[in-house]
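Methods, example record. To illustrate the input and output format used throughout this study, we show the complete record for Phosphate-binding protein. The sequence lines were provided to the predictor; the line carrying structure tokens was produced by it.
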Amino acid sequence: MKLQRKNRLRATALGALAVSSALVLTACGSDNNTGSATGGSGEKTSAASDVKCDDAKGQLLASGSSAQKNAMDLWVKDYMAGCKGVEINYKASSSGEGIIAFNQGTVGFAGSDSALKPEEVTDSKKICKTGQGINLPMVGGPIAIGFHLEGVDSLTLDAPTLAKIFDGKIKKWNDTAIAKLNDGVKLPSKAIQAFHRSEDSGTTQNLGKYLAATAPNDWKYEPEKKWPAPGGQAASGSAGVAAQVKQVDGSIGYFELSYASSQSISTVDINTGGAAPVKASSENASKAIAAAKVAGTGKDLALDLDYTTKAEGAYPIVLVTYEVVCDTGNKAETLPTVKSFLNYTAGDEGQKLLTDAGYAPIPTEINAKVRETIASLS
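The corresponding predicted structure is encoded as:
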């Protein structure tokens, strides 16, 4: 009896071991559906069909534009899920800080909402050695004008009125200029609190380009990354400006649509002089960005945006975030990872993520050039 009982216990243990082993094998098989796998050719790919890890390895440091932070968070998460053992560390600071870091050689690429200036290209040659820094347009989107005004859910403004608000010339929400654009809306006699970026910002520069192009009589400042107008209140990063607008009644500020969407902040409709005011949306921003022309030369793909468009449904306050890389002379230890990651962000699936996140994909014709340039990086 004791022998039979011992045999039964042994059989039970072996059966449990077999089930446990089967579960482990099943789990390993499941990992291949969501993580890295090796195709028949030996090339490492991920669950997302256009993520190719290739020779990517180790840690890649990058920094810059906070405008693209929400998009970058999605990209990094998906890419790292597909390319096990590779770490992409993107620090969302500002366009200015990103370019400084790139030209100091401390990052593999930088994000900037404005194309490199000639002097920045010159500085980049010290790091790129055999080449220079170039601009690769990767993320498009509207710069939303967010506002917080108790009792007012919908607001329309035009360029001259926006210029006067951000220049401190219009100080009350019930100002005649605002009232004329918002017939039937009960505007309170409340002080306007305008928020702007505290650090050098490509988002600031793009807003400045819009105001300078569309309201030259009311916005006399050169479009620069540093906020030019007196007064107002400063906050750090797009996230900081959005947080202030969210909290402060009577406030207005500017930031990427993704920040407004994620925090349920109301946004201004823009009167462009077209048939109807235009809402800030990915689709409407895409209509404006689609008209952009490549202004860069060689492998540089800097774009010329039309901020004065009156095309139906085109939202004019837009920006394009560039990933700044060396055309040649990239560091050998980071080049494979830079190319692999940017190939994903510029790929079909990487670009598809943008719309749902409040951004706008780069127009197809321009994006094709971006992919060709990434493939040629050395």
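Annotations derived from this record:
The first strand starts at residue 37 and ends at 38.
The chain has two domains: 45-140+291-303+319-376, 142-289.
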